[in-house]
Amino acid sequence: MVFDATAGFPESRRRSLVDRITRHAEPYLYTAPALILIVTIMLAPLVLGLSYAFRDVHLLNPFSGGYVGLDHFRTLYEDDNFYRALRNTLWWTGASVLLQFVFGLILALLLDRPFAGRAIAQALVFLPWAVPTFLTGLNWAWLFNPVIGPLPHWLYGLGLMSEPTNILSNPQLAMWGPIIANVWWGIPFFAITLLAALQAIPRDLYEAAAIDGAGAFRRFTSITLPFLAPTIAITVLLRTVWISNFADLIIVMTSGGPADRTQIVASYIFTQAFRALDFGYASAIALVLLVLLLAYSMLIVMLRQVLMDRA
Amino acid sequence: MNSYSTFGTALHRVAILCYVLFALFPLFWLLKVSVTPNDLLYSEGVRMWPSRMSFEHFRFVLAHSAFPVFFRNSMIVAGATAVIVTLLASLSGYALSRFTFRGKYWLVALMLLTQMFPLVMLVAPIFKMLSPLGLTNSLTGLVVVYTAFNIPFATFLMQSFFDGIPKELEEAAKIDGATQFMAFRQIVLPLTLPGIAATLGFVFTAAWSELLFALMLISGNSAATFPVGLLTFVSKFSVDFGQMMAAGVLALIPACLFFLFIQRYLVQGLTAGAVKG
């Protein structure tokens, strides 16, 4: 009661003070649960993981946990598997993004044109996106399996294979398995995003261009592409980061094999943590991956700046 | 000119058909093998449809395997995650849509950051953090982890739905004496029901599909989710193709149902979480 400083205020003034406090606190109350979860379940483990990179953390060894300085990074520097994983990551990401983008763009252009049954066709071609990734991986692994799947027999029938074998166990070709599965699963993402951008282009632009005598190809290069360019740029850049981190399909289809030919950095991290239970080394690789991704993002931001300055 | 456009139309339809076939073929094959009886599995290997259909694999999987348990676990985890995330994300999305407040910029930046860094980095530290709390090998632990992972994306998605609702409605309610929260609960939320449904669908699908953290955090059969159970089954009984694919078809059902549910909101959802799958 002694502390009731507002006691002397008229009723209306007091209410407005309480009001002001609640109004100030309100957005924080709304965002607090989300923020707390993000900080405890994502940010704290991130920091903890960074510290593991400099410690010896083995799950099954109760005496581990001491600081080892840069030891993990010295091992990493000489780890051929890591360099192979790095090269594989470039190959996996580049091929997946390029194919998803090209086929996604074609699909978006096809769907941009009205035709009977468009709604149902659209639902069917977008369906792969809803298939859980573990099932996508297993499904394609089965399709490539000559015992149960048709693909090796078809490739053999076409003369592309000397005998129906599983490409997932062929070191030269194995990476194509997860890439094809990834393209199948990821085309809808590009198609949906690009379709939305296509439908935002004002239709009268095309009519005006047609009246001025521009052919279909000319209209595509002078209207469609420039309008799509920002969407294409942002989608491809973000997707590149996402796919380079996307290990599910590889873990499910090949677990990085045969002979580490399909191991990407993300799946290598997972294998080190999950199979070898070497959390320290896994975190050191993760730290390097994080730095590489940061460098890539910075490069993109700088590139954008240069292009903007020139324009 | 006319023959050219007829040709163009035909080409367009053929191209669409190719895409539809490519999209559906793997799922068709899954279904086909799951209804092929064991004695025809190898003799009719590349036939498009078995000469005789049978549901023996489904019967076996439902009656004599642990898949009903995995299915139930996944339902619990994905369902609980979807409900909690949608609840919390509608609050935070509303704050981002309606308020300007100190630190808002940093909050958005933090949420964008969580969408950019490799989540696989967190596999080891999260295991270490949850294990003394008894949250490894538990469905609760998975729900907590999945909730945190999905909140940023769901917040942006809900924000985009709230942005589409005119502010005047709440202002009118506030003039009539309602608090902001009352206006939010009684006026804005009912209008956002389609958005809430979409968010539920997106989060459910994401939680239903998650594999790596479930593999790391769950070790026994009793708390295994469907992906973990199916992968364990595949590595143990890699010759029972019929049963594996019957289980695969079961895993597909909820995902497809939710897809039909959220189909109309795909564009909004994918642009809100442009970095998420």
TrEMBL record, chain A:
It comes from the Bacteria. Residues 86-300 form the ABC transmembrane type-1 domain. InterPro entries: MetI-like (IPR000515), MetI-like_sf (IPR035906). It is a multi-pass membrane protein. It is found in: Cell membrane. The chain crosses the membrane at residues 28-54, 90-111, 123-144, 183-202, 223-243, 279-303. Belongs to the binding-protein-dependent transport system permease family. PANTHER family: BLR7065 PROTEIN, SPERMIDINE_PUTRESCINE TRANSPORT SYSTEM PERMEASE PROTEIN. This is Multiple sugar transport system permease protein.
TrEMBL record, chain B:
Its main location: membrane. It holds the Pfam family BPD_transp_1. Belongs to the binding-protein-dependent transport system permease family. The chain crosses the membrane at residues 12-31, 75-96, 105-127, 139-162, 183-205, 211-234, 246-267. It comes from Mesorhizobium ventifaucium. InterPro entries: BP-dep_ABC_trans_perm, MetI-like, MetI-like_sf. Residues 71-262 form the ABC transmembrane type-1 domain. This is Sugar transport system permease protein. It is found in: Cell membrane. The keyword Transmembrane applies. It is a multi-pass membrane protein. Keywords: Cell membrane, Membrane, Sugar transport, Transmembrane, Transmembrane helix, Transport. The keyword Transcription does not apply. Signal peptide: none annotated. PANTHER family: INNER MEMBRANE ABC TRANSPORTER PERMEASE PROTEIN YCJP, MALTOSE TRANSPORT SYSTEM PERMEASE-RELATED.
